[in-house]
Amino acid sequence: MTSDRPKALFALRPVHLPLLFPHTVANRIAQHTDIDPAFAIEQLDDPRIAALLPELEILITGWGCPPLTDAFLHSAPRLRAVLHAAGTVKAHLTKAVWDRGIVVSSAAQANAIPVAEYTVGAILLAGKGVFGLRERYRSDRRFTPAEVIADVGNYGRRVGIVGASRIGRQVISHLLRHDFTVRLYDPYATSADVPRLELEELLATSDIISLHAPATPQTRHLLNRDRLALLPDGAVLINTAQGSLIDTDALIDELKTGRISAILDVTTPEPLPSHSVLFNLPNVFLTPHIAGSQGNELSRMGAAVADELERLVTGTPLLHRIHYHDLDTAA
Q: Is Oxidoreductase among the key words of this record (predicted)?
């Protein structure tokens, strides 16, 4: 007896399968597809799936999925949808996928939530001077009770957002609930909830700058030596986007002066070499690329895929469909 449900397959690192798709989420997917909820592959030429490919209709991908080559697409002629349980699809999807009319969806919106949360937390702490004051307290081992510290606080703090991406827009939405003055730079944004400035003006007039632009040839070293020099004394630069947006050598030179500070969740290279001075500078706060989904946050992306799958099988338009023409300006 054959199932009338579409055949589906997980193509991602098996270690991530139970994190992305715990039982409750896996059961939702199994209700709508003919899939083994405990089986995931990292190689699309895996002989264990050869018999499945001619009937495969839905591929659920994630971190570790290899590129969907022409040979794979030829072997899966009925494939009609790729639902990605992570952010960018650039690493494993080629134009041939769209040329064949295959529908593509991504959980990038779900993955944007923890990045935005991390960023807003970093902005709030930076505005209070937490990182520098922690260093001072740890060094002096004392402080003056009831001392009013000048030049800290978030009331009216000027925050510049570079990039109205999914994450950038969420960060702006969060910040507008506070008493920040928020400005945006994004040459592609067609609308914005906050005033837009040219990049140079944004950098020169912001207390805190947060990067949310995609990594493209046009954005490589977007913050170069000349633009970093525009940051006001005491400014804090936050990068949760891509290390390539900043000229690392130029940033190090600025940081060495003590004139500005940085909160870096991403760097170039990544990870940093063990001898990098960024580990030792007191005005740098480094984290190991953790702003995106971690731990129990992975199941949010799995749930987003389950939501999209239910839309797909019921003929409802996908909420997070990715179009090929969007890739040039997307993360």
A: yes
Q: What is the pTM of this model?
A: 0.92
Give yes or no for a contact between 223 and 194, defined as CB atoms under 8 angstroms apart.
no
In this predicted model, what pLDDT tens digit does every residue of 216-251 receive, in sequence order?
999 999 999 999 999 999 999 999 999 999 999 999
Q: First vs last Cα of the chain: how many Å apart?
A: 44
Quote the CA–CA distance of 183 and 13 in Å, as a whole number: 39
- pLDDT tens for 69-101 read 999 999 999 999 999 999 989 889 999 999 999
Q: Measured at the alpha carbon of residue 310, what is the angle toward residues 308 and 313, in degrees to the nearest 5?
A: 110
* Structure-block tokens of residue 118: 């991390």
Residue 105 burial by Cβ neighbours in a 10 Å radius (0-12, 13-18, 19+) = buried
Q: Is 247 exposed, middle or buried (0-12, 13-18, 19+ CB in 10 A)?
A: buried
pLDDT means over runs of 10, the chain (331 residues): 83 97 97 96 94 97 94 96 94 93 96 98 96 90 89 96 96 96 94 93 98 94 98 98 97 98 97 97 97 97 98 96 82 60
